[in-house]
Amino acid sequence: MTSSPGSALAPTGTLRAVINLGNPVLAAGTADAPTGVTVELARELAERLGVPLALRTVTGAKAAFTALVDGEVDLAFLADEPARAAQVTFTAPYLFIEGGYAVPAASGIDSADQVDRPGVRIGVKEGSAYDLFLTRTLQHAELVRGTDGTAVFAEQGLDVAAGIRQPLTAYAAEHGLRVLEPAFMQIRQAVAGPRELPAEAAVYLAGFVEDAKASGLVTAALERAGQTATLAPAAGD
């Protein structure tokens, strides 16, 4: 490893990346054998840097964010949210994922814009991108946090479940819920490094993400995983 960006991105000589298995659009498999878009991106980056790769798996974005901030890993795959951007360095997004709501079939709530009302309780996964987004945008409804938005929704008999559209839609179909339209947010999935990442390394990481989008790497990885999401446009477009 001879480049300055490589030395900064993998200061121990090994690229340490954290993979969130709690987001099935981005990662799947097991702790010993994770798969998915983020795993493929981490492997490609390590190969380009010419260093070994060490993957650490977690089950939520909050844990991934904490691992990066605490210096336990060099790289994380997170949604770019203002509450996180103050502590880490983000690239431009590589994928867009939607955050949505689901309600019981008999609910009087018919659309997403009817959710933010007094007395409405929404189940969210603590520390998720949609938890952070709703925390700063809701004015009337109450957030109830748990290890998973649908789990706390069911356990506490809440009015609304919030989550990533794909797994939320599957959950709704299995439990007789209605998914509300439109999506309440667009989740900007990006690559994150330490806040103190040197400028040259940050530019290299940003360039890697742009090339991964333009070359088809992200799209192909998504297809191999059997997942759907929207490829983010080139930075600046």
Automatic annotation (TrEMBL):
<keyword id="KW-0732">Signal</keyword>
<protein>
    <submittedName>
        <fullName>ABC transporter substrate-binding protein</fullName>
    </submittedName>
</protein>
<dbReference type="InterPro" id="IPR001638">
    <property type="entry name" value="Solute-binding_3/MltF_N"/>
</dbReference>
<feature type="domain" description="Solute-binding protein family 3/N-terminal">
    <location>
        <begin position="14"/>
        <end position="229"/>
    </location>
</feature>
<dbReference type="Pfam" id="PF00497">
    <property type="entry name" value="SBP_bac_3"/>
</dbReference>
